[in-house]
Specification:
By secondary structure, the chain is of the alpha/beta class. The protein has 18 helices and 20 strands. Helices cover 40% and strands 20% of the residues. The strands form three sheets. Strands 1, 2, 3, 4, 5, 6, 7, 8 and 9 form a nine-stranded mixed beta sheet that branches. The termini are far apart.
Length: 484
Amino acid sequence: MMILIRFTSDITTKAKPTRRRFLRRLANNIAAALEAAGIVYTLRQEWSRFFLQSSDERVPQILQTVFGITSLSPVQCFPLGDLTDLVRRSTKIFHEQIRDKRFAVRARRGDRTPSNFNSLDIERALGAALLPYAERVDLSHPEVTAQVELRDGQAYCFTDALRGPGGLPLGTAGRAVALVSGGFDSAVAAWKLLKRGVTLDFVTCNLGGAAQRQSTLRVLKFLTERWTHGTRPRLYLLDFAPVVRDLQANCAERYWQVLLKRLMLRAAERIARERGALGIVTGEAIGQVSSQTLANLKVISQTTNWPLLRPLLGDDKQEIMDTARRIGTYELSAAVKEYCALTLHHPATGAGLRAVLTEEAKLDPAALQRALEGRQLLDLVSVDPDELASPGLQIAEIPAGAEVIDLRDPGAFQRWHYPGARQMDFLMALKDISRFDRDRSYVFYCQLGLKSGQLAEELQQAGYQAYSFKGGLRALQRYVQAQG
């Protein structure tokens, strides 16, 4: 099987030295993608096309994940002769594909193709030869388009042009770090920067313990294997649970979201400096949540003078989710819970810088420093997410004899709680886990599953039988209804 590979206009419009550099990088990335899959191939590079030869049927699908490719076509080729010979050979290739269908013929002469006939001559002669096999010619809406491309003394015949991802070859546009949670937005934002040729490392500020670590890691592992051909991205995992506890204990609740994003940007900037990255990528979209109002984005942006790259600013949620489906992250991101939503009670939507700085002064700077010093570094090419799994943290039913503990505030507890559950303050529980009985088992729940996951993980690591109810409050309420 031979495949004709077309480059994007982002490459073909570049000056010659830049174009040569981009094509070398594209060839390198194609090689990396195919060799990672164990595919044997040969690649021939021309000024305006690549030609790839392989017997492996997976090649077209893999090439559709290499940035810089605008389209590709499986082709049949033969040496270029005169017009009569060209029409005869092409008719043998196309006649069954257009049989009883509406068809059109498109011809193109490429670089360095001497002949005494032009593209229009080919289209007329080949169209006449194919017409007896077809229903009719339809130049506007053909069912099949017979295409012939002439290059360097060869004729290439094909009907399909499979779409590539476009963009720039990965590795041609510098390096950035991407703040990622694993959800729809941050994964799509990262993909859009990869498409523009930017090499990425990833930073995750972990608020949800082992559950968030595993779900985020699976999303990034997929992005790495499918889309980062020719690069070797790293993941920096920071334990942000102590940072958040400091924030919640000392700052006004309405500013928690803005303060959290500012702290995350500081962490990302530190890693960007170390890695020589030229920007920080985030998945923010204007107005999507309280921290992403234009007023709050202004205050958040003033945290750093590093370039902030926000490719989703103008997208709505449906557009982001559609892109997630197209690039393959949708199902994985759908399993990632919202860990950054620290408060559901009237968060600030128009925070002023002076008020935010006043609250920020109450934070312990050492908390962020400890998170940075204790970060975990993972090679996303070689890491196996299953080896880092923390099994048994979440459960979807209440075991007999387990004590159920509600970590929400007393008012929410009074409105509804699991029958027989008792209310407990989350921060107090974290400060003194010795109050729990080692001879008992515990099931924690909260609004979103964030606090319960953190507390259960802390207790498990200390040797307790502790679990977080999977799915948070709504899942628990459905469980109670199902139990009758």
